[in-house]
Design a protein that fits this description.
The chain is an all-beta fold and about 120 residues long. It is about 0% helix and about 40% strand. The strands form 3 sheets. A 5-stranded mixed sheet has the order 4-10-9-6-7, with no helix packed on it. The chain is elongated and about 50 Å long.
Length: about 120
Amino acid sequence: MLNSMLCCRGGAWEAGRHCPPSPAGMYDTPTLWVQPGPTVTSGENVTFYCRLETVTNTFFLLREGGPSHAQGSHGAVPAEFPVGPVTSAHTGTYRCFGTYSAHVWSFPSEPVKLLVTVRKGTW
């Protein structure tokens, strides 16, 4: 299970602390994907992958309306965010960001929607 982390979104920390402005702006757009796929059965394990072409040191995975998770990665190696076993509570829209420094962030990835279906025979 991943630990919740604070993350800068739209100029403010999720916990209410102000995030310093990004004087250099944002760069690049990461690619986000999930394996084994965007539709899984409850009880399965999934892994989100986030990759940027440029070197970054930390990636954040965010679920709309949920906590963020941080993962380090260097170079062209994608960051991995293992999640599971999943339940219907994991259903949602996810995006990732990369950071170049505490003040410089990538653009958000395109959204990935994870749908967790209930295994037949369970409630």
